[in-house]
Write a structure and sequence with these properties.
With 318 residues, the chain is of the alpha+beta class. The protein contains eight helices and 14 strands. Strands 9, 10, 11, 12 and 13 form a five-stranded antiparallel β-sheet that branches.
């Protein structure tokens, strides 16, 4: 048994994986929204703490204190270990794992390199804008986006072209999962749009490339080093390669979509995705075997637990 903590609106990435790909794990995993944390008295077993970047600072402080006082088991992504997006970007640039900057929209440098795009600090939807090619376009975009997003939550990201090694007109994203000591290649996605969220180009040649990459995983050592730099025990890394062949890490998501819905996977890609799912199931089973303890619930009435939990801060949808 292990517990999986996530923000209330975003427990579905693991739940969908359990439903579609790993029903045999359902009884071994307890998915807990952070908002329900004070329903529990203690945590004795292994737990994955995801979604730290979706929490506001006061929420991180409150939940970190709970885990420090009551988390008696082993924690993956422990409080204080996972850096914010700008901090991680700075570490990766220093270690030569990316050549672009991510910075607060309220503190832009004079040497900002265009094109850029806007994204929210605490979500994983990706870009909120098209590519912006000059200061005038950036100013206009900020004016629009700030109508629904707090300025302090906005980040400006320098864009860097990362395409397939065999086709400069085809954008490409590589991804891998870390689940404790296991590092599992997830997918290679190809698309015509610069922001690759879903594959819109699938053919036998691209499927064969993805399958061979997943079997050989040539970046394994570099990906492991990046996860170590980030202090992330559980999460998915997304990266690409620039025109010079240098690895460019886009982000690490600590509450990623573990797998797409099963019926959405193209038949050409299914065998490789099944192999990846099998390896992740084995990694989760290893975690589940560490302890039989469940988080222990409080004996307080519901209205008392609500008082302990305190007000829930509004959060941008992602």
């Amino acid at each position: 048994m292990f517990a999986y903590f996530a923000t209330g609106k975003f427990t579905f990435p693991l739940e969908w994986f359990l439903r579609d790909w790993a029903p045999q794990l359902v009884a071994q995993v307890q998915v807990v929204p952070y908002e329900s944390l004070f329903d529990f008295r203690s945590l004795g077993g292994t737990a994955i703490l995801s979604d730290w970047d979706r929490l506001h600072a006061d929420e991180r402080t409150t939940y970190s204190r709970w885990f420090a006082e009551r988390g008696q088991g082993r924690l993956l992504n422990p409080p204080g270990g996972v850096p914010e997006r700008e901090t991680l970007n700075a570490r990766l640039r220093e270690a030569a794992y990316c050549n672009f900057r991510v910075m607060p929209a309220q503190a832009l440098p004079a040497d900002l390199r265009f094109p850029v795009f806007l994204r929210a600090r605490n979500d994983h939807r990706g870009s909120l804008t098209p590519l912006l090619h000059d200061h005038a376009a950036l100013t206009d975009a900020l004016e629009v986006v700030m109508q629904w997003t707090r300025p302090s939550d906005l980040l400006v990201c320098e864009w860097l072209r990362c395409t397939a090694p065999f086709d400069a007109g085809l954008y490409c994203k590589f991804s891998a999962m870390r689940i404790d000591r296991h590092l599992i290649p997830r997918h290679v996605l190809f698309a015509r749009h610069w922001q690759v969220k879903h594959p819109d180009r699938i053919n036998p040649e691209l499927a064969a490339y993805e399958r061979e990459w997943m079997e050989t995983f040539p970046e394994r050592d570099a990906v492991n080093r990046v996860f170590d730099l980030a202090g992330v025990d559980y999460g998915r890394i997304d990266y690409g390669f620039d025109a010079a062949g240098q690895m460019q890490v886009f982000e690490i998501n600590t509450n990623p979509m573990v797998m797409p819905k099963r019926d959405s996977v193209a038949p050409l890609r299914l065998d490789a995705q099944l192999a990846s799912a099998t390896r992740m199931i084995e990694a989760f089973q290893e975690l589940a075997g560490e302890s039989s303890d469940r988080p222990a619930r409080q004996g307080f009435p519901r209205w008392v637990r609500a008082r302990l939990r305190g007000p829930v801060r509004p959060r941008n949808r992602a």
